Amino acid sequence: MGTRRIVQLATLVVLCAVGVAVAMAATGSHGHGGTVKAADDATFGSLLVSSSGMTLYHLTTEKPGSIACTGSCATVWPPLVLGSGAKVIAGSGVTASKLGTIRRPDGRLQVTYGGIALYRYSLDRKSGDVEDQGSQGIWYALTPAGTRAKAGTAPAPTTTTTMDSGGGYGYGR
User: Fold this and answer.
1) Residue 57 to residue 47: CA distance in whole angstroms
2) What percentage of the chain exceeds 90 in pLDDT?
């Protein structure tokens, strides 16, 4: 395969990825009035998610009360924004007093948690995906406590031991 063909193929792949991201940003960032709730993840424990169950992230280089992710950044990382007349709603497991909004440079209201602007990742395809946790060392899913999610913080699975009729743990008396 020639160099020209490789460049054409790479360009096509990038254009497809951008197209998918734009489509997801247009359809997936509004949610149902800005509902934020908590959901359990097997690797990271309890995480903030949108009303549709999509993981919510924050950009650690973004200071509370400011927006740094705009343009192409907001295409890959769609902000959780409110539709016209919609309100922020605290779902189960979320502290209502931590929810708020911030005005984006384009005029839309973006949902915040503890003053931190919330985003989705455009390549998270389904509820529960946490595909880009820790991306570039600056994008992290948030916990209901308002802290960065870390692998290994999920509660350990519980096990139960039942006794058989012999009174022991599978052993006769």
Assistant:
1) 9
2) 60
